């Protein structure tokens, strides 16, 4: 039986992406098609998304969708079905998906994504003529109201099951209780088993409460969020629904992330031709104004935030350079961390290079040219950069948490001897722990056979979407047969 799924998200690569959410949502339709699941993706009508469906006729009109008119348009995303909520009052804005060019969140994000959730519920439940779906799959807080609207205010009587995926529980969409009157929900929805959250409104909480199943993006993270130090206030709800929580590791798209075919590389290669990485190392050095050197080159591709452990890395850069390493960093985030890394580059010209911002092609070259990638996250639901590193022979040096713990095999003596180690893990995100992990990487890099073994083992691992797609398809079928 073919299953029809409406995937509801605020991002999808290549149309809109601020992080791993966009990569995952963009890859899901192809991953699930192989398992007899047809996915239609619903996106907000940001300017870049609207450009992709230019000239499309309206399939449905909402004269008043939580305060503004909206239309439904259709298009394609990677050859798969795409629906776009065209609501200029909400989404026709310069800046990012969630805020202006200065990084300030839009004041009406609650209304923008409530409208998005309501539209998703209308479409999935059959209230929009011409559409019928077996299941709604919502991603993160921006889509969290969709399962809540299905439960409390469906516009059609047909029951549609829903899945809520947590990509990062730290982002929850919490708002003052005063917005409830504008959400077009019945009074009974403002309750502990509804959208109410510590006296206010919680979009992610609403989705977790209403959905038939909850998924997170790694098994370890599924266990971590049961605890107060990782659950961010939602651990009680998640423990109460633990039987419906599933950890499914994200995959990566080999059509996009493949060193044998990647056009962003100076030279392509595979695990049988690792010397080909040398040309990419030279290109990466040039891109970051680093001194050419055959010593270990570390890279970072990350948001510069506390969650990502970037404060600890900033304190450890001097030790990295003193040990013989170099660093190429690409990212943006907290202003004080951006300043700290710029200062590190000034202290170590030719040894530390920093690019503030994001560049998709450059991120590919970094994976293909750097020797190791540093990911000292305090928590990491899944992480994709370590998966890219594994695929490209860029050895991950990671904190032992969430998906990092699930996907990287630590280079202890036994794993090295068995040639199954793929990277380096460390506990406790502290200067001492990170400095030790970096020193271990530098030590292993000085043993070419062992380092090449780490690279080849990582490149041989299968982190494509095939296994993850099968798990999602199995979960969908279990829900529909319950």
UniProtKB/TrEMBL annotation:
ADP-alpha-D-glucose binds at residue 17. GO terms for biological process: glycogen biosynthetic process. GO terms for molecular function: alpha-1,4-glucan glucosyltransferase (ADP-glucose donor) activity; alpha-1,4-glucan glucosyltransferase (UDP-glucose donor) activity. It comes from the Bacteria. The keyword tRNA processing does not apply. Residues 5-239 form the Starch synthase catalytic domain. InterPro entries: Glyco_trans_1, GS/SS, Starch_synth_cat_dom. Pathway: Glycan biosynthesis; glycogen biosynthesis. One of its GO terms (cellular component) is cytosol. Keywords: Glycogen biosynthesis, Glycosyltransferase, Transferase. Its EC number is 2.4.1.21. It catalyses: [(1->4)-alpha-D-glucosyl](n) + ADP-alpha-D-glucose = [(1->4)-alpha-D-glucosyl](n+1) + ADP + H(+). Residues 290-445 form the Glycosyl transferase family domain. It is an enzyme of class 2 (transferase). Belongs to the glycosyltransferase 1 family. Bacterial/plant glycogen synthase subfamily. HAMAP family: Glycogen_synth (MF_00484). This is Glycogen synthase. It comes from Sphingomonas endophytica. The lineage of its organism: Bacteria, Pseudomonadati, Pseudomonadota, Alphaproteobacteria, Sphingomonadales. The gene is glgA.
